[in-house]
Model the fold of this input.
Amino acid sequence: MSVTVKIPTQLRAATGGSAELRADGGTVGEVLDAVFAEHGALRERITQDGELRRFVNVYVAGDDIRFGDGMDTVVSDGAEVTILPAVAGG
Amino acid sequence: MSSVRNLRCKECRTGYELGASYFCEQCFGPLEVTYDYSGLDPEATRRRIQAGSAGIWRYSDFLPFEGKVGDPLEPGMTPLIRADRLAERLGTEAEVWIKNDAANPTHSFKDRVVAVAIAKARELGYETVACASTGNLANAVAAHAAAAGLESFVFVPSDLEEQKLLATDIYGTNLVGVRGNYDDVNRLCTQLADERPWAFVNVNLRPYYAEGSKTLAYEVAEQLGWRLPDRVVSPIASGSLFTKIARGFEEWLEVGLVEGELPKFNGAQAEGCSPVATAFADGSNVCRPQKPKTIAKSLAIGDPADGPYAVDQARRTGGGIDSVSDGQIREGIRLLAETTGIFTETAGGVTVGVLKKLAERGDLVAGERVVVYITGEGLKTLDANRDNFDLTEIDPDPASFQSCFGQEIAV
Done:
């Protein structure tokens, strides 16, 4: 499965300036692993001990993966995975 | 000389310059404004406050600006009212006080945070301000932007209470109803803030915006004669207000403007959106997101940004976080109105509902001073009471009145 991963501005230094990445994987975890394989600096920024950091939100097609199966949430071909800070609002 | 220093990550402590940044690039933690109050003499500071303006800007020593600031709609110094009849109805011997923050320019505490955020937006040179809102913030951003002559975009869930939509659009803003819940609106605004040169008051300006809530602590301390309450009951949506009230009291303790210890903090949520109360009850500080379903729309944040900090604070101070049902919310609105003459919105019903729960559970101590934060106005959520009132219809003659009410005729 090939999906698009959207990267917020503040992380683009770790992706060589790219706002969107293409990656393969059947679940969010697999997609992120594929992204980290290409852009190693992102791993530590987004995850800690294999889990998402507590102020990172990940969405698949606009839905928060915590309403799905977390890192095991299935992504379909062509889906959009969005990484965003969780500290907005209120 | 100003006390404000920089922005700092609440998680990993990385420092940042005082710009439009809100999360840490290292760990995604929230950024917070830091100050150095070591140069503040308590007596001189107290005199400066007392000689200051009539609203929030009297506390400029504790707000994130270098020079003198102000705003045309200055909010703040809302009434703090002793509520003995409410305490009596609750059967508590605690001393109950109501901080009525509906008495602000757009009738909610959001005027405080928006006044600070918009002053910062102007300082940073923004021409357009925006927000993701459950309604009260929408009113405040639209009004303060109008007063400041700035363009504004206000994003709300499209199913918001009609009163809150009307009371936003009237100010000439760009009112955008998003098909989704507040968390969807918030996600959209987080994405838009990344793309557009706008000041989103509760996204990229959130560290400054949140500082405005500290003034709710300062005012209460000042109104109580430079003393702290023993307990605070406050609503929790994102947890920002709840944590910043505590920060305000902590700062005044640090500077020496008040003595004693931090009050116990009791948070209030609606059962239909209670991620923070649930985490507290579970002994965790991980707030699992929820899909809100409650009449308290102004508290309907299913993914609260400051949730973990709110839980920690409730535990640390010996307080708690409770939730109440929609029925208890309506009952709370009526109870407050009948005993104090204050008509609050659903969020206030949540807060009073939790106060009642604390009284019934025996958590309130005789003689302790409890301050209840009422954050919004009842006229904005009329639907909550639509089927909850009595009207006796009569003909325009005394006999008709007599037949319905049967009172003795006074001589």
